[in-house]
Amino acid sequence: NNFRELGANIIIDGGPTGKASAGELIEAVNGSGLEHVIILPNDKDVVLAAEQAAESDPDFIRVIPTRSAVSGLSAAMAYLPEGDIDEICALMNESIELVQSIEVSNSVRDTSVNGIDIRVGAGIGFLDGELVASEPSLAATLLEVLKRGDVSQSEIMTLYTGDGATPEEIEKISEMTESHFPSLELDIVEGGQPLYPFIASLE
């Protein structure tokens, strides 16, 4: 797990919904034995629960409002194991402002979101948590999300492959990135995340 490698002490899966409640977060951190705990929600729907948990003990529990796994990884990489807690949190907050997050998965139903018609099985792409694209394949969806992102301000895209990512799709993404964004460096990492075959960061 990438977060374990970056020093995370506690990882909560959030149960069937993948979204932990304030009570679950408080219960998890209270037994940590640590002086301070920094929560990375890594989901826009968990930020509020994390902030509610922090209200129970604002000095002990701090929250970096990461809205995706990508922004969570960026914050985790900015973490310093020693130093003033306020300064550490400030650095982590700065780091998430500098990264754009992309998430790509498959739609499980026909629907329409943000004026985008989506067919079951099609790719759906999110930019900083907002659905912005849907194309027949995951690779084409990721390319469409990139076109909507601020790629001109980015030097590197880190692509984390998860459940459902195939070698063919990875190769297509590599080719499309090189063709459409030749100045963008692509770094591919085996993320192993569920639900999203591909998540990516633009930095």
From TrEMBL:
Domain Fatty acid kinase subunit A-like C-terminal, first and last residues per copy: 2-203
InterPro entries: DegV_domain_contain (IPR050270), FakA-like_C (IPR033470)
Pfam families in alphabetical order: FakA-like_C
Protein name in UniProt: Fatty acid kinase subunit A-like C-terminal domain-containing protein
Organism, scientific name: marine metagenome
